TrEMBL record:
PANTHER family: CYTIDYLATE KINASE/PANTOATE-BETA-ALANINE LIGASE, PANTOATE--BETA-ALANINE LIGASE. It comes from Streptomyces plumbiresistens. Its EC number is 6.3.2.1. This is Pantothenate synthetase. InterPro entries: Pantoate_ligase, Pantoate_ligase_C, Rossmann-like_a/b/a_fold.
Amino acid sequence: MTTALLRTADELHARVRVGRRAVVMTMGALHEGHATLIRTAREIAGPDGEVVVTVFVNPLQFGKGEDLDRYPRTLDADLKIAEDSGADAVFAPGVEEVYPGGEPQVRISAGPMGERLEGASRPGHFDGMLTVVAKLLHLTRPDVALYGQKDAQQLALIRRMARDLNFGVEIVGVPTVREDDGLALSSRNRYLSPEERRTALTLSRALFAGRDRHAAQEALRARAREVPATHARAEALSAIGESRAAADTHAVAKSRPSPTTAVGGDAAGRPAHTGGPAAVRAAARLVLDDAGRLSPPLTLDYLALVDPSDFTEIEDDFTGEAVLAVAARVGTTRLIDNIPLTFGAAS
């Protein structure tokens, strides 16, 4: 198949539509993570549908001192990846096509959810992101739009915008794609030197440590549920509780709280209890603390364990889906990563 390159909305609207249109929004510099999104879109659209990939570096979501001018523009290579992955068209408008009157006077506000974590580190970023996503949804008119779960807060905000503002589009999240060593695929990975890349691996290792701690806790709970409700069950619960408490206390004791998030407690500095979310945070924090002493060091921005519905920190008695998220700098490159977890009765 030949993937069409479209520069204007009129060109896109002139295309004959038969089946479902699935859209994948990108800022270009495509990699295997984007290719996975496009292939998933192809499956959803089906053989009679249409897959459109947008390539647009949105100036509204770059803050002062961020890498707008440095951000890679690789349209020829992007076209090849899009075509190989099953895209019917690449919509690559210029700034004047998306913002014909200059920077828009009316924008979408991300609200309180957009001021947390990434929003606190990058003020105004999510307002700019939602504004361009809303515009591109109107310009491309899809039935379904796909986004990567690596940008978990972005995905959550897009879902919230579509729901709160009654966008007639299905929003689909696609799992994070990782390289063989665990590093989450990102267009910014190309900025890393070999030494910086080794340090950057700490982000995924920290998340995996938290995930493993969580899995161990859930396995212990499952074992306790399997023991018959007898005196033996009480003894088993006691033994499991002692074992888990010892491991959790060790992890919490060894962790060192940061100015932004006290892993031995919550973001407000309240004391933590052993087990559950506190132990997951502590296990991840141990890895990140060690990375601060590497050469080059990792500079932590935040480590958070949040409710994906609003990105607030979860409490120790939380049950349900959560996101363990981390952001840090290695050299001049800022990286983010996250993994989903499920706590308690819902797991």
